Structures are given as structure tokens and as C-alpha cells.
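Tutorial, part two.
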Amino acid sequence: MVSEAALARKKRFVESKELHGGSKGLAEHLDSLDWNLWHEEDGTIISLSKEWNEALSEKYETAKFNNEQVAILIDKNWNLYRIRTDKHNKHVKFIEVRPVVIDKISTENDFLFQVDKNSKATYDIKVSLSSKAFTVTAHKDFLEKYEEIDIADAVISGKKTIPFYITSKNDPSFMFHTITISLYDILNSTTVVKETDTDFRGCSIFTLKLFDNYNYSEEKK
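Running the prediction step on this input gives:
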């Protein structure tokens, strides 16, 4: 026997289809609707749908996002993301990459250096973030120091790779992403570009203090 709830859903579907001029009109209407998202207090995402679910709404916090905002979650592992509620306005919410909570980033010298945003003309390497990529560029003066060295044997402070940690603003204990750049690639190509799946602009960048001078900027696009 068909349940009353199922019959009611069928009735609503038929009425909505007629209201929007057939299947195509209904599909366009549904596509234009905002998404309803249910999440726990800590931001863990529970469910996502364009249809309202009263039962979920009684158990979890809710938020509404448009198609563009929700695109980051489609066909992705929701556990990698969370909902952040604005501390000044509980009705304002954001979808963000879930940070990895760590006690300490393990390094040989246990020292992390925050790359500050600046516009220094003198630098060894320049780091930049766009909406889709992380880029490291070596200054010509720095490259000249390695002109007489086989780049396959080149090291910087005893290391052949440079780790960059993209973290919560000014807080290296909440890490979103790690990017490792080899000194070989920097010396061989001058500019090294690493694509990112997420727009990390607004985050902080920490690394080992291997170079004397850093330049850091965020691109507009």
C-alpha cells in the first residue's frame, strides 16, 4: 500500500509540474532554488537538499546556500568541509575546508616562520596565492648564487625541498593544506606553480626559515 506521505509527495510534484509548464519548466525552477543544508553544532555537514526536511531541522542546525556556493560540495567528500557560523551573526554561515588540528608541525628545528604579506623589492623567493594556484618565483639575484652549482646537488640550509603550510589566519595549529616545492624545480624553472582545489586567499602561510627574504602577495583572481 502506498503511504499517505508518498501520495502527498506525488500530488505536490504533479501540481508543481503543472504550475511551471511541464517537466522542462519544473527542472529549471528546481535548479534555481537555494539548497538547504543541515549541520551539527561543530559544523559537520549532515545532509544537503533542495527540499525542506522538517525531521532533520528538528535535530540539526540549518543553513541556505545558492548553487554557486554549494558547488564546492558536489561530488566531494563532505567530511573534508564544515559550516562556519559568523561569531557576530549566527544567521551568516560559510562553507569552508575543514582544518586539520595538529599539536605541532614536525620539523628538524621545530621552528616555523610566517610569510608576511609585503611588497619588498629585495627578496630571494616570491610566494603568491590566486584563487586556483600557489606560485613560487625565485629572484634573479638568488638564482645567480647557484650558477656554478649542479642544481641536482643544490641545497638550501641543508634541504632540497621547501614545505609550505597553508593554515588558519595567523595560526599554524589549524592546517588546511601542505605544498612542498623542490629547490631543483625552483632553480630549473625559476617559477613553480602548484594548482589548488580550493581558494586559500585570506589564509596564512608558514614555512621553514630557509631563505633570508620572502615576498608574499595575493592575486585578485
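The mean pLDDT is 82. In part three we will examine how such features are distributed along the chain.
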